[in-house]
Amino acid sequence: MTEDKATHPALMRETADKTGIRRLLAIMAALRDPQAGCPWDIEQDFASIAPYTLEEAHEVADAIAREAWDELPGELGDLLLQVVFHAQMASEAGMFDFTDVVRAVSDKLIFRHPHVFGDESRDKSAEQQIKDWEEIKARERAAKAEKGVLDGVALGLPALTRAIKLQNRAARVGFDWPGPAEVLDKIAEETRELVEARDSADHAHLTEEFGDLLFVMANLARHLKIDPEEALRLANAKFTRRFQSIETALAAQGRRPEDSDLAEMDALWNEAKAAERV
């Protein structure tokens, strides 16, 4: 370990020629060095690192949701590391490098903001800017020969988020319900179909119908201008908070949830619910 560290003394601290992102890129290259690097880092590929990339993005979102601002720099750093890791592997394969990544996103930002970097007026609403953004992205997809309306919606997105993006794409060409009332009617229909599937022995069919209901629920969120992921995160937080209140109330009696029953815990849940409304 000592000998390996001595091989890269400049990386152990910031120096005049290795500061900021340059130092990070050099560290990543050293970790991937076939002779002196870290065995684990050397063994990784795009597919094996992708789950960590998603995990780090979620941890950034978690720190923001908790307003843990002291943790956010570290979490953002972990996410940046994922970009650097992918870029290093691509560089080794002769595909592209970190500079190409930075150039691509810089060019994209300039191209997608003609009201800032071009001659378009900035005097437009946020809603109009979103519409313009989608039109610009549509032109980009056309340039990439993505001919289908739904082409390019990433498969790796969280399912609810991907559902919204698919529905937004379809809505742009007129494939959409007029408003929330029609979506609610569809929810009632999908609920009936789910009940019918529940009484069958076909689990695959039950799963399909449940997915249909979730998809329509996402569509309702879109019509109501609600982020379904955010709504579910809030519901998760509320459930956690109220269940912890149950645990606290039982602990005051020297008991745990498994020592209770549904009726008692439901009553404690209602007490916690009522307390939140005070």
Automatic annotation (TrEMBL):
CDD domains in the record, alphabetically? NTP-PPase_MazG_Cterm, NTP-PPase_MazG_Nterm
In terms of NCBIfam families, this protein maps to: mazG, PRK09562.1
The record lists the catalysed reaction(s) as:
ATP + H2O = AMP + diphosphate + H(+)
- Origin species: Paracoccus kondratievae
- SUPFAM superfamilies cross-referenced by the UniProt entry: all-alpha NTP pyrophosphatases
| Alphabetized Pfam families for the sequence | MazG (PF03819)
Q: Which domain of life is it from?
A: Bacteria
Protein name, per record: Nucleoside triphosphate pyrophosphohydrolase
Its GO biological process terms?
Answer: dATP catabolic process; dGTP catabolic process; dTTP catabolic process; dUTP catabolic process; response to stress; TTP catabolic process; UTP catabolic process
PANTHER family linked to this entry = NUCLEOSIDE TRIPHOSPHATE PYROPHOSPHOHYDROLASE
Care to name a GO molecular-function term for this sequence? ATP diphosphatase activity
